[in-house]
Design goal:
There is one protein chain. The protein is an alpha+beta fold and 428 residues long. 32% of the residues lie in helices and 21% in strands. The chain is built from 12 helices and 16 strands. A 6-stranded mixed beta sheet has the order 6-7-8-1-14-13, with helices on both faces. A 6-stranded mixed beta sheet has the order 9-16-15-12-10-11, sandwiched between helices. A two-stranded antiparallel ribbon has the order 2-5. α1 crosses α11 and α7 packs across α12. The longest helix has 19 residues. The protein is globular, with a radius of gyration of 21 Å.
């Protein structure tokens, strides 16, 4: 089975590529065999969960750290059903330790690249957690949510591939503008040498945000329509960068902006539960040079308002063109992903995700919180994920810049939320 364009770009991007989603529950931890039984029941029949990369002798090999299948192309193969005993196990440490230990270690071996841990963690308001880790080229963040939702009490909801609804056509002029935006020069965080390795300064921080703080922050800016969770996250990260590193003119390249990568789900109602990678990343300039948290948020709202149309250009024009080009050979995907391998392409990545559906339980245990693990990217970058489950909001930062960078920036993000909440107009 051929990898999609998104699969190949994630495979070739030079990053560890591990992402995760943990679902925290109240009550006593179930036995691991109970979890294995539920996983076997709900996931065994999903083709994507049984896929491995083709590395057969004579048909596949590695070239400069990249995997190529038959005829020089990477391929997914399904050698058989996964073994729940090999994929589902009890963790020996708490959730934050599982995240920190896993983020820079790709899931290798000859089995499908995902693992599910039963975590004995009373932190984050619960009694235990189910933590799903996967290589990003196999599953995206929306897939993790779909899979975890399918494990909940009640009927399963995860599905295999489905035909997408047709996307609206966009013009070549819009495609040209987007190509220029994606190719524009940017700059990395002013903290590392290009020679640094992933493990040099890797750090993970998990923080909880009070629901009242987020609700108050959403009433910003005054007199406006209010802010979405995605807009708040991008605005808060812009403020955190300003607080940590100062105004952009003091950085290495004064004339170049700082960008964040905003992942966009390309699924439609026709394939909402499809597993795999149906996403793109839109590059958005941070208003780090703007003074004041509310003014920065307004600037972020203006920038984020263009993201849906830009993502439609990716889906309707750029991805089909890339699919056509990469039929000429695997070098095309490597070339396309080359720009994104540089920390100056996007200094950060910012993802806001909401638990799908309403209240959930597992074996009668109530869901109290979700905790995401964004991927570790290139040296000199930091990734942020803000997860919402009901009234529980959890921020995870993954840093690859300076020692404990994730913690410092996560604290600065929370400070921005606190500032918005204190200055928000009280509800009528």
């Amino acid at each position: 089975m051929r990898l999609s364009c998104a699969d190949e770009l994630l495979l070739f991007n030079g990053c560890p590529g591990v992402i995760g989603l943990a679902v925290v529950f109240s009550g006593e931890q179930p036995h691991v065999e109970q979890v294995r039984a539920r996983v076997a029941e709900r996931w065994t029949g999903l083709e994507r969960m049984n896929c491995v990369l083709d590395r057969a002798p004579g048909g596949a090999g590695t070239r400069r750290g990249r995997v190529f299948g038959r005829r020089g192309r990477p391929r997914w193969v399904v050698p058989g059903h996964f073994d729940p005993a090999a994929h589902v196990s009890a963790a020996e440490s708490k959730l934050d330790d599982v995240w920190a230990r896993s983020v820079d270690r790709p899931l290798g071996g000859e089995v499908p690249p995902w693992r599910l841990f039963v975590v004995p963690d009373a932190a984050h308001g619960g009694g235990f957690a189910l933590a799903l880790l996967a290589q990003h080229e196999l599953l995206d963040g929306r897939s993790l949510s779909t899979l975890m939702r399918s494990l909940m009490d009640g009927p399963a909801t995860a599905k295999g591939p489905a035909r997408s609804a047709p996307l609206t056509r966009t013009g070549l002029r819009a495609a040209g503008r987007e190509l220029r935006a994606m190719a524009a020069a940017g700059q990395a965080l002013p903290v590392t040498s290009p020679r640094e390795t992933y493990s040099s300064y890797s750090s993970v921080a998990v923080c909880e945000l009070p629901a009242q703080t987020v609700r108050s922050a959403r009433r910003q800016p005054p007199g406006g329509r209010g802010a979405t969770l995605n807009e708040l996250l991008v605005g808060a990260v812009a403020g955190a960068l300003r607080a940590e590193y100062g105004p952009v003119p003091g950085w290495r390249r004064r004339e170049q902006p700082v960008y964040t990568a905003v992942p966009c789900d390309l699924r439609t109602r026709a394939n909402a539960a499809e597993l795999g990678n149906a996403l793109t990343a839109v590059r958005v300039a941070f208003p780090v040079e703007v003074d004041g948290p509310v003014a920065r948020l307004r600037a972020c709202q203006a920038a984020m308002a263009t993201v849906p149309d830009r993502a439609a250009v990716h889906a309707g024009v750029l991805f089909p063109a890339a699919e056509a080009l990469r039929r000429t050979g695997p070098w095309v995907s490597s070339l396309l992903s080359g720009r994104g391998r540089r920390s100056c392409f996007a200094a950060t990545a910012t993802t806001a995700m909401k638990w799908p559906g309403g209240a959930s339980t597992f074996e009668g245990h109530r869901l109290v919180r979700t905790v995401a693990l964004p991927p570790m990217r290139h040296p000199g970058t930091v990734s942020f994920a803000l997860a919402q489950a009901g009234d529980a909001f959890t921020l995870t930062a993954v840093g690859n810049a300076r020692p404990d960078e994730a913690r410092r920036l996560a604290d600065a993000v929370i400070t921005e939320f606190d500032t918005w909440a204190r200055t928000a107009t009280p509800p009528v």
